[in-house]
């Protein structure tokens, strides 16, 4: 067990402080003023992070479409999941919001290079060049379900990730230092020697478990971190602490991109930008602090103490609720009647966004990037010189995974019972 004084090994300010519940009362107060104060902070697409970083990894995507093959009454057909989306993700905390089935996880996976390209059209560019085939080798991706081994300690799980993902040329001492620095950043020193836990072994808390998952990706110091609904299964206070950690990463200059369903206000206000999806199309994309004003301008008013995320879901997913949020007939925008149906409402919202100033800003930002890419020879140079490969050999990976499997068998109570 390490004392607090040991945390200085990384030489950096920790991203997370161990007092996980210290924000709880503060958050309750903040939630009571949700829509009233959402406009305090702004981040434009031409800037980077609040802390003044002017460099980092920028992911731009241009005219992205993604379809899958499906059967409808025995007839093969194509279903379009993502519909001609363009946008940009800069250093900071970027959230993709939307109801279930809106395509937010699909968009996240496309940006992370985790979707089959034969179903994909358009361009995903990383700092203005083509996304490499093995882009996932140099970025972090935290899946919704845990990938940690419950029979191993927190430190052992991080060492496992380091053995697989750090270059073989690094010495054991350097790998150990990287693990210790990650433990420091995530505020996990006090549980470093505790087993993560499973259904048979009592382990660490849900928030500590989630931070361990994030740490397994941070061990390689990726400039881009993707997360699929990182607050799923966490209580309110723990969820806030995890997002605060991600906000800290964004302020350091990392590009953090996450999907999330319906966050509370204390989480929502930490986002730098949001991309709000409905059935594969944007209904808003821009600074999180300007979203409420945008919806007010097109005819939907968020009540003073309503959570912005709840308000957005009401508007884009519930035509009856949308009527309750609609402004009077004096508004410049005519709100659709309930009889026109939810599908018409979603189309209406996406068309309003396409004609908005926010959409024009996105086009003005992304179009020069695409034009420069199209008129250059970067694609050829990239494929020959910069193709990303795995940093460890197959034999090294096999040895590491086998070693973990043996430890799991020895420590698993189920194994003892069977014996």
From TrEMBL:
Q: Which SMART domains match?
A: AAA (SM00382)
According to its record, what are the GO cellular component terms?
Answer: apical plasma membrane
Q: Where are the transmembrane segments?
A: none
InterPro entries xrefs: AAA+_ATPase (IPR003593), ABC_transporter-like_ATP-bd (IPR003439), ABCG_dom (IPR043926), ABCG_transporters (IPR050352), P-loop_NTPase (IPR027417)
UniProt domain ABC transporter: residue ranges? 59-304
- What protein is this chain from? ATP-binding cassette sub- G member 2
Q: Quote one Gene Ontology molecular function term.
A: organic anion transmembrane transporter activity
List the top taxonomic levels of the source. Eukaryota, Metazoa, Cnidaria, Anthozoa, Hexacorallia
User: Is Ubl conjugation a UniProt keyword of this protein?
Assistant: no
Q: Which UniProt keywords apply?
A: ATP-binding, Membrane, Nucleotide-binding, Transmembrane, Transmembrane helix, Transport
What is its membrane topology? Multi-pass membrane protein
The record's PANTHER family line, in alphabetical order, gives: ABC TRANSPORTER G FAMILY MEMBER 28 (PTHR48041), PROTEIN BROWN (PTHR48041:SF116)
Cytoplasm among keywords: no
Q: Subcellular location, in the record's words?
A: Membrane
Protein family according to the UniProt entry: Belongs to the ABC transporter superfamily. ABCG family. Eye pigment precursor importer (TC 3.A.1.204) subfamily.
Q: What is the originating organism of this protein?
A: Desmophyllum pertusum
């Amino acid at each position: 067990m390490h004392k607090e004084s040991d945390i200085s090994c990384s030489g950096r300010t920790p991203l997370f402080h161990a007092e996980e519940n210290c924000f709880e009362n503060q958050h309750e107060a903040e939630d009571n003023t949700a829509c009233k104060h959402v406009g305090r902070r702004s981040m434009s697409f031409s800037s980077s992070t609040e802390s003044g970083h002017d460099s980092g990894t920028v992911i731009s995507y241009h005219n992205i479409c993604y379809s899958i093959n499906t059967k409808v009454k025995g007839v093969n057909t194509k279903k379009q999941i993502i519909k001609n989306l363009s946008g940009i993700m800069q250093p900071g905390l970027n959230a993709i919001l939307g109801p279930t089935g809106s395509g937010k996880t699909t968009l996240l996976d496309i940006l992370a290079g985790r979707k089959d390209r034969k179903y994909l059209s358009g361009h995903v560019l990383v700092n203005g060049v083509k996304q490499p085939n093995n882009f996932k080798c140099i970025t972090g991706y935290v899946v919704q379900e845990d990938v940690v081994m419950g029979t191993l300690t927190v430190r052992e799980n991080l060492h496992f990730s380091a053995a697989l993902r750090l270059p073989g040329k690094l010495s054991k001492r350097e790998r150990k230092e990287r693990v210790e620095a990650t433990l420091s950043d995530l505020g996990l020193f006090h549980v470093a020697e505790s087993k993560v836990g499973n259904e048979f072994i009592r382990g660490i808390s849900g928030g500590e478990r989630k931070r361990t998952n994030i740490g397994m990706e941070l061990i390689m110091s990726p400039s881009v971190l993707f997360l699929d609904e990182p607050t799923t299964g966490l209580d309110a206070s723990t969820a806030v602490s995890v997002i605060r950690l991600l906000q800290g990463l964004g302020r350091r200059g990392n590009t953090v991109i996450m999907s999330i369903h319906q966050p509370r206000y204390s989480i929502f206000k930490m986002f730098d930008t949001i991309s709000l999806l409905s059935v594969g199309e944007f209904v808003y994309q821009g600074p999180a602090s300007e979203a409420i004003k945008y919806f007010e301008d097109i005819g939907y008013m968020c009540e003073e103490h309503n959570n912005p995320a709840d308000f957005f879901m009401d508007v884009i997913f519930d035509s009856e609720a949308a009527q309750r949020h609609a402004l009077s007939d004096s508004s410049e925008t005519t709100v659709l009647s309930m009889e026109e149906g939810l599908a018409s409402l979603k189309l209406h919202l996406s068309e309003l966004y396409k004609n908005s100033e926010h959409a024009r800003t996105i086009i003005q930002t992304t179009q020069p990037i695409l034009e420069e890419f199209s008129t250059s020879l970067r694609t050829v140079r990239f494929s020959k010189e910069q193709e990303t490969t795995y940093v460890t050999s197959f034999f090294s990976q096999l040895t590491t995974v086998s070693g973990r499997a043996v430890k799991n068998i020895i420590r698993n109570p189920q194994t003892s019972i069977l014996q």
